[in-house]
Design goal:
8-stranded parallel β-barrel; 15% strand; globular
Length: 275
């Protein structure tokens, strides 16, 4: 069933588990993620970036993912990830997304608050949820996105003034890591959750060791973004298939293994997050 993020994150906060937010872009990957959620009896957030949404078409992705959500026995959120302008958000809302993120982490505090609040007011008309970010989670190998840990007092002031439904914070992770070598600063995370009332979000979670994903269940981390781990699993599975069967041209046969590998990663992450 299609739901908004607000419907599932408060329960996650009370139940001490995290909901995975999975970067799944095409129909087959979307299906693998939804099937894993059904098998694990877990809610799931399906998300797409503005760049990929522009490539595929907001309406098209919203139609495909939305129909999967409506037919599913699992609770499914359709989420636009990391929009740093409002125009993609308006497109996503019109296309039926049930949640959006305005990423104003590179803006001055006042501008981040103002635009996030504008997004919140528009999203309310659609019954959609809004994620925002304070502090900044960097991208591995890119210098265009600053790396700045979240200040607990600033986070509390931002959440209160912006009206966001959940808040992404920077506490030690980095986007696009392929090795599980990141470390959460749990003293900082605890200070943030003591100040901030809304559910917290961790980006760049592929870089976290399994033990840290389990440990986060003791905190108010309710949404956990996972993208790179899925792409790596799919890539390895596909390369192995092509090496073993270089003359096979049957598209769906070649994709069965990488999609199953991707699905198993989703199941494993769900287990670590409390399902």
């Amino acid at each position: 069933m299609l739901v908004s993020m607000a419907e599932i994150l408060q329960r996650a906060k009370e139940g001490h588990y995290g909901v995975p937010a999975l970067s799944a872009v095409d129909e087959l990957s979307l299906r693998a993620c939804v099937e894993a959620a059904e098998e694990m009896n877990a809610p799931v957030i399906l998300q797409i970036s503005p760049v990929v949404a522009e490539f595929m078409g907001y309406d098209y992705w919203g139609m495909i993912a939305g129909e999967m959500a409506r037919r599913s026995t699992a609770e499914v959120v359709l989420h636009l990830d990391h929009a740093n302008m409002v125009e993609p958000i308006w497109k996503a809302l019109d296309a039926g997304f049930s949640s959006v993120m305005f990423d104003g982490s590179q803006l001055p505090f006042e501008d981040n608050v103002r635009i996030t609040n504008e997004v919140v007011k528009r999203a309310e008309r659609y019954g959609a949820s809004v994620e925002a970010e304070i502090g900044s989670v960097a991208y591995l190998g890119r210098d265009s996105h600053k790396d700045q840990l979240t200040d607990p007092k600033e986070a509390a002031a931002f959440a209160e003034a912006s009206g966001c439904g959940c808040l992404a914070v920077s506490v030690g992770t980095t986007h696009m890591m392929r090795t599980q070598t990141a470390n959460i600063q749990y003293d900082l995370l605890e200070s943030i959750q003591n100040e901030v009332k809304v559910p917290l979000v961790i980006h760049g979670s592929t870089g976290l060791p399994d033990s840290q994903l389990v440990k986060m269940r003791g905190y108010h981390v309710c949404k956990v973004n996972i993208g790179t781990a899925l792409r790596v699993a799919f890539d390895k599975g596909l390369r192995a298939e092509l090496e073993e069967r270089p003359n096979d041209y049957i598209y769906i046969d070649l994709l069965k293994r990488p999609l199953e590998d991707e699905k198993q990663v989703v199941r494993r992450k769900m287990e670590l997050l409390g399902f």
